[in-house]
Input
Amino acid sequence: MKKAPLVVVPLVLFSMLIVFLFQGLFSDPRELDSQVKGKPLPAFSLPDLMSPTTIYTPEVFRGHVTILNVWGVWCVTCAVEMPFLTTLKNEDNVRIVGLYFDQDLDPDFGTKTLTRVQEEVTDMLSRYGNPYAFNIFDVYRDTSLDLGVTGAPEHFIIDADGVIRMHHIGDINERVWRNKIGPLYNALIAQMNVNIDNDSVTNTEPSK
Amino acid sequence: MKYFLIISVLLLSVVVHAAEDNFAFDTPAQRAQFLALTAELRCPMCQNQNIADSDAMIAHDMRRKVYTLLKQGKSEQDVIDYMKARYGDFVHYQPPVTAATMWLWAAPVLFVLFAFIVVITRKNSRIDEDREIKLAKAEAMLEQEKQ
Output
């Protein structure tokens, strides 16, 4: 009678091990704790991909809920998600901004001209649809590094105050949109509209 | 001699990999720092490779960043903190001791202690039981003798 608990110990340990390893089967090793979540975008000053004289700063994200999509023409998964992103833009009016970076463009030993990159981008967008409001060109890939980007495609959901609310690694498809990103996006849109209403109320009240 | 060559080629290949980018350093110490850092920082893309070994673009960029930071006179800890601020504790092969990671060190020690306690208590109880049984037997024999 006294020894019964001791017999149970290995059994309990074994079942705990089973649970631990079973979870491991479904864990995604690429899922990292994002360090930028809940923080405003890091400072940057980068040119537009198509017209490099236009310079963007984090201010372009103020006043809109935006999905910042890190991509490049060399990225196969980006091509796969592009049609879906385009439907999001056309049907749900989602504001998608591209953060473009080029793989072959070594910042120190440039091997590719800007016109060549632009040609490739235009070609790809005409083939798969253009979901982007505009593309920010991360020339030296510094901003990607600041954002903790590991590759492409990656997405940052940015609220109307320019704060990063979600970092999604991998593509956006219908399932991901329905289960993960869509709910947050809609909540942020609703929140923004409430804020605008409140602002307009507070703004109009003094004038009465 | 042949084996020595093969082994040295195998061992040196890592160094060659890291030097592929052709970074020029001010001092040999700085070069050693760079090699140490790139060996101990982990590539977030191709996991379980350090950034010295990895050929992923992110590893290239991180090596370049380590180089520029060292050139700016930053210390090794500064570079590690810089990378951790962007990629989390994950990026460093030396995990910090936190409530969650403490078990990596504590679990084996606790297991050995637990096993030790189990062995000792089992041994003692068995000796006691044996002694009691033997005593009971002796007692019974004595009783029989008396009769």
